Amino acid sequence: MSRFIPSPIDVPGDSGSQELRSLLERNLSRVLTRIGANVPEGGRAPELVAVTKTVSSEVTLALVDVMVARGLTPHLAENRADRFEEKVLAFEAAGVRPRWHFIGHIQRNKARRILERADVLHSVDSLRLAETVVRIAEELERDVEVFIEVNLTGETEKHGLLAAGVPEVLEVLAASPQVQVAGLMAMGPARDLRTVDEVFFEIAALARDLELQSPDLLSGGKCRLSMGMSGDLEAALQHGSRFVRIGSALFEDLNLASPPSPRPADR
Ligand SMILES: *Cc1c(COP(=O)(O)O)cnc(C)c1O
């Protein structure tokens, strides 16, 4: 479904873009080293999902180039519907097809726009949204992979289902032939209510319970985990995460190197 079609990426060949590329290569190497050092013994290497919500389409294209040069499948994630559409269009114009992940909260009135283009949703966080996703995926006849977002941090301001709400949402999603349930998505705690380890441990336990109770509702019988960001990827991998969502660590020091934006007179 989502082949990556290699094609030369047209980044202007000035010194600014060479500097950009070197920084992206350095940052990507650092992230891959951190990942490599934390995959549990005998565990499979996780997928690196690059969260590109803070950078332009041009920087995102350059990152994909660097990822492909390292032999990685480019998984890209955005968290806002409008920016997501903008990026997809820029990539279509460049003839590049990464695998598109949507990781932000999904307002139901924007679900169609997101489902028209996303390959993977990480943020199905309510029964009503699950029903909407199923209906639209079927109308569009579009296959979509879905993670159910859970929130076990105790932070009520965050999105995500409590453990008790997960089975019902799983059933609704799995009933649709267009939807593959990949597993659970979670974020670590932002405040010190609970430790990252505690939260990730519980989510991994919940995933194992779901695998035991309802393997036939899960894609391939597996409940995979989408956990780990720049600040807590080590802990997430130690708890078996299969998809790490990394943003800031990939773009470290970038604004130092970006060429100055054109003056109005240059446009
Ligand atoms: C921004 C974001 C990330 C990436 O966070 P970094 O700390 O920049 O790596 C991961 N997941 C979600 C849901 C996000 O919104």
From TrEMBL:
Q: Name one Pfam family in it.
A: Ala_racemase_N
| Full protein name | Pyridoxal phosphate homeostasis protein
* Single annotated GO MF: pyridoxal phosphate binding
What does the UniProt record say this protein does?
Pyridoxal 5'-phosphate (PLP)-binding protein, which is involved in PLP homeostasis.
User: Record's NCBIfam families?
Assistant: YggS family pyridoxal phosphate-dependent enzyme
Q: Which family does it belong to?
A: Belongs to the pyridoxal phosphate-binding protein YggS/PROSC family.
Protein source organism? Saltatorellus ferox
Chain positions with N6-(pyridoxal phosphate)lysine modification: K53
Which keywords has UniProt assigned to this entry? Answer: Pyridoxal phosphate
The segment(s) forming the Alanine racemase N-terminal domain are 45-251
**Required cofactors, per record?**
pyridoxal 5'-phosphate
> What PANTHER family would the database entry show?
PROLINE SYNTHETASE CO-TRANSCRIBED BACTERIAL HOMOLOG PROTEIN, PYRIDOXAL PHOSPHATE HOMEOSTASIS PROTEIN
